[in-house]
C-alpha cells in the first residue's frame, strides 16, 4: 500500500456557545481567528502551515463534527477513497473551505473523517509576519500558546477493532495499546500516520453513543512553555483536569483542561519519534505507567468522559453535501447515514458490557 495519509490537518468541533468557545481559544489557548463562514469560526495556531486547524461549529452539545487528514498526494486521496469504499463504507465528495475537493465518510464506529489533498497555505498579514522564512507567522505573544495542532483521541466501543480497521484501510500504524491489568480488555490504543508516536488515539467507550471524541491536542515546543501555560491557566481560573505529567505511552508531557463547552483539550510536548515501517505494537498495562510514566498519580475518573455525553439525545449525522462543509453538522430527519461495514461493531458492541466499573462512564 502506498503511504496514504500525511498528518492531521484540522479538527471541527461543535459547541452550544460559539462565542464563548472562540473567546477562550483566543485568550486562554492563544489561537487566532482567521475567518467566519456560515456560522462556523476558523482558528489557527501561530505555527500551523495551512489556513486553519480548528473549526468551531454551532451545535447542541460538545462533540467532534469531523477530523480532517491531508493525504500524501492527489493519487493517495483517490487510493484512500477506493480502499474506504472497498471496505463497505460510502462517503461523499464536497468542496471544503480552503481545502478544495475533499471526501468525508463515517467510519465503522461512527466517527466522521475528512480526507483532502488540496490546501491553502497560510499567508500572515504584514503586522504578524515572521522575520524567519520557515515560520508561517510570528510566535504568539500569548503565554504558552501552542505552535500547532497535534492529535485527536476518539472513543470507540472496541479499541482493537477500531485500530485494525484504520490500519487495514488507511494505513495508520498501530504503535501501542493498553490492556487492563485485571482483564484482557483493551482500553486504549495509539495510531500514527507519520513518525510521531501518535496522531490518532482511541479510548474504550462504555456508552451507547457512537462517534464520540475524548479530547484533541495542541503541540507546544518545550516543557517550559507547557508549564507556563499551566501557570497562566491557573491564574485565569481554568481548572487543570490532569497533569502536567508524562505519559508512558508516547512519553509526551501532557496537560488537560476543558474549553467552555466542557470539551477536553490537551497541550503536549516531547515524546519520541518512531520511523520503523513494520513496527510491532507493544502492549502496556496501567500498572506499567501507560498514562503516567512516574506511576505516582492515578488518572482522574473525569478523564473517561467523552463527548457528546451519553445522556443527551443523539443528533443524527449525515454525509456531507458537495457545496458546504459547514452544513454537514445540520441534521436532516430521515437522511440515511453512510453505510458502515460492521453495524454491530458500533458503540455498545462487544466489550462494552464487560467494561470495568472504574473505567465506566455514566450510562
Ligand atoms: Fe492526547
Automatic annotation (TrEMBL):
Residues 321-336 have a biased composition (Low complexity). Signal peptide: none annotated. Residues 7-118, 148-270 form the VOC domain. Pfam families: Glyoxalase. Residues 311-320 have a biased composition (Basic residues). Gene3D superfamilies: 2,3-Dihydroxybiphenyl 1,2-Dioxygenase, domain 1. Residues 299-363 are annotated as: Disordered. This is Catechol 2,3-dioxygenase.
